[in-house]
Design brief:
The chain is of the alpha/beta class. The protein has 14 helices and 11 strands. The protein is globular and about 55 Å long.
Length: about 450
């Protein structure tokens, strides 16, 4: 039996086994930083100036070296390529297969030029697929019409072309998001959400699969593992969307599922966290069975809990906490090694009072210390030079200072930048500065 046939057979066996402001839905990046609700404690997107170079770092943090510190040859240097709403690629829906392929290769070539070693390509943005999936329709972001064959295999091509350039390809999936609208009739006729309307929850003008239903969890795992079975991807990657970000005045309607499945839990919150924990554990096990050696990583919102909520939390005043608001116990996943790597989105500048980059790097390094879970840092390249960003982000050296500071922590094994469009544009040369200061030679991804 061929490797692919074996993997698909294994997948078939697995499939039969058992409040703050609203966000848009691009994934790791600008909409991963909620704005504060009126009168609420500040979330983590305000605009405090960065301290001067060489300013003191928080108590309990090791002082960063004044100049870039050479790192080991094994180092994550990654970039996200977002496909939802055509954020990074394709530049617009409906381009020809040749044009889409050319654009994709340009992103890969740019990663190589900047001495990166990993691309994290969003291949399942809205319960759809960028490969010929037997479970879900072709993505509308390719052709403009969900379910329409684009005439080529984007994921298969991406894996082949990335590997030919010495890049790892991580398949980025969003588990539960169905659509950025609330009308099931707009979905492809074959869409599983139309066949199983009981799986669907409308919330905030969007459609989501209900994480509280075991049938949903089994299906989304099966759909995502199909990509692992078909292609030699180096990793599967989740972003920060689990339960939806809270919206003031709205509740996620999972009453029926909670009444049916939540009886053994002390609260709805505990039940919801268990639902997400189950997905993470089961996905990790499925990846190992279908294609041993393929890794599993997650990029959560950067604050697990504030210290004012939990003494184990970070010295932050974030308006969103993943444990309480997204029901994602990200700290536990690291400490218990349920995942191979974590990339917290630390999208704030050094010295920002509500969520200081320096304090959060120190906190995550402490969480990862002594575990087998690799820690990489998600970096806000998209903020550098962007209109409306605070003065720290108008300084081309801010991102380079991030890498200098993180180098003081051996637990930090690299960085991932959001995102590919910003890597290509680099309006104020922030990425060029990172490359010059920190990426003077090649590096292989940690394993």
């Amino acid at each position: 039996m061929s490797r692919r046939a074996f993997a698909l057979a294994a997948l078939s066996t697995l499939a039969s086994a058992p409040r703050a402001a609203a966000r848009s839905t691009v994934g790791p990046g600008p909409d991963s930083v909620p704005d504060p609700a009126p009168g609420a404690a500040p979330a983590v997107s305000a605009m405090d100036p960065a301290p001067a170079e060489g300013a003191a770092v928080p108590a309990g943090s090791a002082a960063p070296a004044p100049y870039p510190v050479p790192r080991a040859s094994a180092q994550m240097r990654g970039v996200w390529i977002a496909t939802v709403v055509n954020r990074d690629w394709p530049s617009r829906p409906g381009r020809t297969a040749s044009e889409q392929r050319k654009e994709l290769i340009a992103h890969l070539d740019r990663a190589v030029r900047d001495r990166l070693n990993t691309v994290i390509l969003q291949v399942r943005p809205t319960a759809d697929a960028l490969w010929p999936s037997p479970y879900e329709p072709w993505s509308e972001y390719l052709t403009g019409t969900q379910g329409r064959d684009p005439g080529w295999d984007p994921l298969g091509t991406a894996v082949e072309e990335a590997h030919a350039r010495g890049l790892e390809l991580h398949a980025w999936c969003n588990p539960y998001r169905i659509a950025n609208h609330a009308d099931p009739a707009r979905l492809a006729a074959s869409h599983p959400a139309r066949k199983h309307p009981d799986w669907v929850v409308r919330h905030g003008g969007r459609l989501y699969y209900n994480p509280g239903l075991p049938a949903v969890r089994a299906f989304v795992r099966q759909a995502m593992l199909d990509a692992v079975a078909r292609y030699p991807v180096d990793a599967v990657h989740f972003d920060d969307y689990f339960y939806p970000y809270p919206i003031a005045g709205q509740t996620f309607d999972d009453d029926e599922a909670y009444d049916r499945y939540g009886g053994a839990f002390s609260s709805r919150a505990a039940w919801r966290r268990d639902n997400i924990d189950k997905l993470v554990r089961e996905m990790a096990a499925g990846i190992k069975e279908v294609r041993p050696g393929t890794r599993f990583g997650i990029s959560p919102f950067g604050v697990w809990r504030n210290a004012s909520t939990d003494t184990r939390g970070s010295d932050t005043r974030a308006g969103v906490q993943t444990y309480d608001d997204l029901y994602a116990d990200t700290r536990r996943w690291v400490r218990e090694h349920w995942i191979d790597y974590i990339v917290p989105q630390l999208y704030w500048h050094i010295g920002y009072s509500a969520a200081d980059y320096a304090r959060l790097v120190a906190w995550w390094a402490q969480v990862a210390q002594g575990t087998k879970t690799h820690l990489y840092v998600g970096e806000a390249l998209y903020r550098a030079g962007a209109a409306g960003q605070p003065s720290a982000w108008q300084d081309p050296a801010e991102l380079s200072r991030h890498l200098t500071l993180a180098a003081a922590y051996p637990q930090v094994r690299g960085h991932v930048f959001f995102a590919a469009k910003d890597l290509a544009a680099d309006p104020i040369g922030a990425m060029a500065r990172v490359v010059a200061d920190h990426y003077r030679g090649p590096a292989t991804p940690p394993r």
